[in-house]
């Protein structure tokens, strides 16, 4: 007991020395906040001892201690952290814009890279009628990194803690975030008040936004989170609570003091509930009858929009937008979303066609959304601010264009099929296994849930993202063979037999002569959250699905299921057919083409769909080809055929079959 009181006495001396230079009201507030903390929570103010609170298994205590130390209302600190990371530590790994830890302290100077469209062999336009070369993209240099992506440097100055520790130690990271908020509050001339309303401007500044509406969106989301309250267990097992404050106010005059620029709206196609501006993609005529770098159209009058494609940039926001403004660059997309605050830039109107998915059939019937970040190398998680903004945008677009809110129509780039056998291997794999589809669909207002009984003939993949941590390698670009740290993921491995040491199933399109890999960049033997598959067999804790023409087993124990029953329709070859072809696009038959338009060959992919196999049916697919190879839109036309196609979940990517080749059955 003497030791305890001696320790408290020493801390009292430390506090008095720290508050000696404070204004009287600030000193009084600090002491009042500290004395309000229970005796067992009184902590030394050094970074080392705050980390001990984390070591003891109490992240809540780390938030309390950091809030008291820097004079930040605890609910403000919790609210900001929730909108960045949902209080997760992410095993010390960076986010999509090189943010670390619960407070998303950014250290992008150490993580530079190029946009993913420069990698691999994919032609982003994906049309043999007008093939494009792959365009090289320069890497981002540290000098190009904006201050909003370097907040860790300032946090290190304010706390005296190394950047390495701010990355890896969650409690130290929380201290760094609290120090930044207090620093921002002082820079505005705002009081270190215990009233959260006074912190509206500092919260807005924490977003790093240069646009007033983006900063406002971030602050409003933080304040709405505080107002509603939230409780959650983090990715590493800490229960954290943010009590609701129903009567929460906000003093918006502090936002005006930031003197941020207004956004250029110009008729953007976005919901009013997000921050959105118009930054147009380049569209101009180029030498040699060329043009760039998207196609004019009249959707949905000319073609229905059936898909929304989710990408990550494999790069940062501003450099990626720069690519979309270059008419010589061989890729384009409709929207970009910033990681730190969820700010949206629209580049191409929804009626026009971006060159984004590597498959012209999908491009002509979809909208592409790029998210700042990386699949794995450079970042392994995405911020809550970006998830929220993206979900609101997708829901708005889905309602406007009648796009079903399911995983057969809200696609990852990694779910888009190759067009013909030669393009399958080069298709991109973003956003990858660390995109939280289950959380995303909750935010969309369309949560993924079970349907049907336990013996249903189909399942939906749905592991618990936080606790499902499959083995991957390839997250470290400097050591690509090293195992990734254990991270939550929305995917399951598929094996040839119902045992953990069985080989992975093969994908003859991705690996024509070799085996599937455990690489984070190889989806060949993986099924992803929300995807529906026909059940092929069950054995103990294992379930087999039909996948790329073979039985594929995944671990699905009753006490920790990785899939749920899913009632729906299936397709199987018609009687008498040993196999039926599968396609990467639903193009018309040759007879449908006018004489002046070259026929686009209907070529099956290299996979085999055999008698006895079943695959889930997503619906019918319009038989169309949009001929657009000139700058002048008057030369563009839609060719429609009579062949009927159905969309199925054949592997990790969706594919198509001809309706005349299959019969439709119930999953039971």
TrEMBL record:
SMART domains per record: Ami_2 (SM00644)
EC number: 3.5.1.28
Keywords linked to the UniProt accession: Cell wall biogenesis/degradation, Hydrolase
GO MF, one annotated term: N-acetylmuramoyl-L-alanine amidase activity
Family annotation (SUPFAM superfamilies): Lysozyme-like, N-acetylmuramoyl-L-alanine amidase-like
Entry superkingdom: Bacteria
InterPro entries xref list: Amidase/PGRP_sf (IPR036505), Amidase_domain (IPR002502), Lysozyme-like_dom_sf (IPR023346), NAMLAA_amidase_2 (IPR051206)
Top EC class for this record: hydrolase
N-acetylmuramoyl-L-alanine amidase domain boundaries: 294-432
Reactions it catalyzes: Hydrolyzes the link between N-acetylmuramoyl residues and L-amino acid residues in certain cell-wall glycopeptides
GO biological process: cell wall organization; peptidoglycan catabolic process; peptidoglycan turnover
Protein name: N-acetylmuramoyl-L-alanine amidase
Organism: Nonomuraea maritima
């Amino acid at each position: 007991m003497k030791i305890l009181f001696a320790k408290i006495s020493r801390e009292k001396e430390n506090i008095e020395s720290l508050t000696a230079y404070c204004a009287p009201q600030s000193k009084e507030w600090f002491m009042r906040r500290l004395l309000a903390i229970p005796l067992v929570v009184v902590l030394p103010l050094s970074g080392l001892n705050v980390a001990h609170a984390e070591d003891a298994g109490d992240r809540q205590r780390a938030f309390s201690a950091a809030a008291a130390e820097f004079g930040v209302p605890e609910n403000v600190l919790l609210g900001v952290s929730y909108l960045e990371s949902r209080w997760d530590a992410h095993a010390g790994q960076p986010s999509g814009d090189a943010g670390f830890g619960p407070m998303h302290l950014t250290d992008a100077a150490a993580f530079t890279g190029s946009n993913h469209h420069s990698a691999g062999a994919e032609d982003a336009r994906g049309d043999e009628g007008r093939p494009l070369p792959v365009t090289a993209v320069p890497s981002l240099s540290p000098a190009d990194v904006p201050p909003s992506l370097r907040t860790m440097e300032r946090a290190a100055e304010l706390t005296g803690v190394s950047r390495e520790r701010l990355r890896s130690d969650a409690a130290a990271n929380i201290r760094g975030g609290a120090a930044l908020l207090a620093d921002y509050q002082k820079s505005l001339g705002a009081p270190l008040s215990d009233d959260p309303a006074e912190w509206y401007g500092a919260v807005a500044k924490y977003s790093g936004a240069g646009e007033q509406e983006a900063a406002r969106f971030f602050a409003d989301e933080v304040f709405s989170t505080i107002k509603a309250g939230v409780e959650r267990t983090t990715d590493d097992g800490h229960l954290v609570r943010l009590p609701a404050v129903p009567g929460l106010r906000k003093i918006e005059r502090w936002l005006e003091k930031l003197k941020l620029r207004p956004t250029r709206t110009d008729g953007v196609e976005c919901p009013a509930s997000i921050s959105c501006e118009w930054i147009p993609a380049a569209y101009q005529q180029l030498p040699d009858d060329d043009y760039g770098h998207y196609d004019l159209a009249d959707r949905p009058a000319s073609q229905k929009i059936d898909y929304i494609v989710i990408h990550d940039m494999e790069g940062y926001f501003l450099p990626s937008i720069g690519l979309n403004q270059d008419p010589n660059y061989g890729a384009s997309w409709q929207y970009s979303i910033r990681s730190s605050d969820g700010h949206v830039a629209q580049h191409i109107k929804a009626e026009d066609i971006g060159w984004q998915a590597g498959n012209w059939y999908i491009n002509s019937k979809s909208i592409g959304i790029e998210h700042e970040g990386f699949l794995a190398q450079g970042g392994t998680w995405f911020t809550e601010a970006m998830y929220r903004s993206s979900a609101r945008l997708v829901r708005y677009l889905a309602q406007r264009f009648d796009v079903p809110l399911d995983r057969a129509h809200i696609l990852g780039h990694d779910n888009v099929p190759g067009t013909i056998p030669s393009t399958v291997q080069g298709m991109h794999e973003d956003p990858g296994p660390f995109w939280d589809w289950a959380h995303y669909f909750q935010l969309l207002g369309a949560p993924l849930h079970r349907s049907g009984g336990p013996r249903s003939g189909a399942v939906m993949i749905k592991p618990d993202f936080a606790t499902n941590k499959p083995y991957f390698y390839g997250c470290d670009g400097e050591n690509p063979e090293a195992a990734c740290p254990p991270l939550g993921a929305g995917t399951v491995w598929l094996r040839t037999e119902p045992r953990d040491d069985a080989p992975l199933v093969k994908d003859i399109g991705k690996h024509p002569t070799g085996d599937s890999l455990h690489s984070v960049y190889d989806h060949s033997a993986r099924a992803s959250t929300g995807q529906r598959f026909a059940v092929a067999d069950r054995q103990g804790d294992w379930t087999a699905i039909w996948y790329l023409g073979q039985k594929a087993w995944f671990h699905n124990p009753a006490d920790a299921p990785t899939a749920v029953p899913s009632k729906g329709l299936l397709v199987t070859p018609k009687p008498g057919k040993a196999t039926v072809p599968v396609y990467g696009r639903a193009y018309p038959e040759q007879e449908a083409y006018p004489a002046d338009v070259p026929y686009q060959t209907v070529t099956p992919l290299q996979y085999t769909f055999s008698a006895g196999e079943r695959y889930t049916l997503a619906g019918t697919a319009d038989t169309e080809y949009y001929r657009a190879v000139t700058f002048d839109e008057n030369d563009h036309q839609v060719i429609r055929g009579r062949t009927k196609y159905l969309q199925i979940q054949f592997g990790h990517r969706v594919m198509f079959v001809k309706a005349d080749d299959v019969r439709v059955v119930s999953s039971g």
